[in-house]
């Protein structure tokens, strides 16, 4: 299979690409290409004439590109960048693919469980309604742009949860304070964290590529979401560090603003209903085992 990947240098892309060695893989890049397997694009303006021709005859596109949501506090400028990097970038890519004589048959796009917003302990599946707030609006608009590829391809939107990986994502950011014994519950600790191990994300992309009948939105979360308190206690136990220094709600809002309030204090209890119905077998369903597997690799 000939596969094109955007966001190849991100957390999911860097873990996914080495597992696709049985396929012919190309990467979309913004810089001047360094090798023949790179195709340059501008996520706002599109493709040059030469690059447009090179988009022909791909079997699948895995679209992972998007600005880092947690890299800094959310100014108006940052929020605009978060949204436009996803919506405009997806629109530009889909429009370019539409113009091809031989467009890809599969279009697999990243999304996020931010689609559901802050839902306390409500059990959420792909059938649940969109939430309220900035991230639900971003994810909904993102998915709508991806769905425009339905005119030529099978479209899948992957609503990715809290990613457990040693080399990036939420867990990496938590490791340093916990190792120094200053980790603890955030806010009330009751907010749900719908997590997934990076190994499962990679395996699910393969699963989606190998099962051409699957389309629509899929929750990429392990079957057993936990509260922030449970997550904190599990990480502390594995690292053999205390978890006695909580980060109160007022401090989160003071230090991190809207970004912290949304990503750290809000939660969603999300289940992977459609993946399980399709027969996907998770590598990690237990948080303790997932953390050990991630940290020991």
Q: What report would you give on this structure?
A:
There is one protein chain. This protein has 297 residues and is α/β, with parallel strands linked by helices. It has a single domain, classed as Rossmann fold. Helix content is 39%, strand content 17%. The strands form four sheets. A seven-stranded parallel sheet has the order 3-2-1-4-5-7-11, with helices on both faces. α3 runs parallel beside α4 and α7 packs across α10.
Query: Mind telling me the CATH class?
Result: Alpha Beta
Percent helix range: 25-40%
The mean pLDDT is: 94
CATH topology: Rossmann fold
Regarding quaternary structure, what we see is: single chain
The residue ranges in which pLDDT falls below 50 over 5 or more consecutive positions are none
Describe the secondary structure blueprint for this structure:
Layout: E1 2-6, H1 11-16, E2 24-29, E3 38-40, H2 49-54, E4 60-63, H3 76-98, E5 106-112, E6 123-124, H4 134-147, E7 154-160, E8 162-164, H5 169-179, E9 192-193, E10 195-197, H6 198-210, E11 216-220, E12 226-227, H7 228-239, H8 249-265, E13 269-270, H9 273-277, H10 287-296
């Amino acid at each position: 299979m000939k596969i094109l990947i955007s966001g190849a240098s991100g957390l999911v892309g860097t873990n996914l690409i080495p597992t696709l060695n049985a396929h012919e893989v190309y990467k979309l890049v913004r810089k001047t290409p360094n090798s023949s397997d790179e195709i340059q694009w501008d996520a706002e303006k599109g493709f040059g004439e030469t690059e447009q021709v090179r988009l022909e005859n791909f079997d699948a596109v895995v679209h992972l590109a998007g600005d880092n949501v947690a890299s800094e506090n959310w100014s108006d400028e940052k929020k605009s960048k978060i949204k436009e990097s996803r919506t405009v970038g997806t629109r530009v890519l889909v429009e370019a693919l539409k113009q091809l004589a031989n467009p890809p048959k599969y279009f697999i796009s990243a999304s996020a469980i931010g689609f559901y917003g802050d839902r306390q302990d409500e059990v959420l599946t792909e059938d649940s309604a969109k939430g309220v707030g900035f991230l639900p609006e971003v994810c909904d608009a993102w998915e709508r742009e991806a769905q425009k590829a339905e005119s030529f391809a099978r479209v899948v939107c992957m609503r990715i949860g809290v990613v457990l990986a040693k080399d990036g994502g939420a867990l990496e950011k938590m490791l340093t304070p916990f190792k120094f014994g200053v980790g603890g519950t955030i806010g009330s600790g009751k907010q749900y964290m719908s997590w997934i191990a990076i190994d499962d994300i990679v395996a699910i992309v393969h699963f989606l590529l190998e099962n051409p009948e699957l389309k629509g939105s899929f929750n990429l979360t392990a079957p057993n979401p936990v509260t922030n308190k449970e997550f904190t206690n599990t990480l502390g136990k594995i690292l053999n560090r205390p978890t006695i220094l909580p980060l109160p709600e007022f401090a989160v809002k003071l230090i991190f603003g809207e970004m912290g309030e949304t990503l750290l204090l809000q939660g969603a209890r999300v289940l992977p209903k459609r993946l399980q119905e399709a027969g996907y077998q998770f590598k990690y369903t237990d948080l303790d085992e997932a953390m050990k597997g991630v940290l020991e690799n």
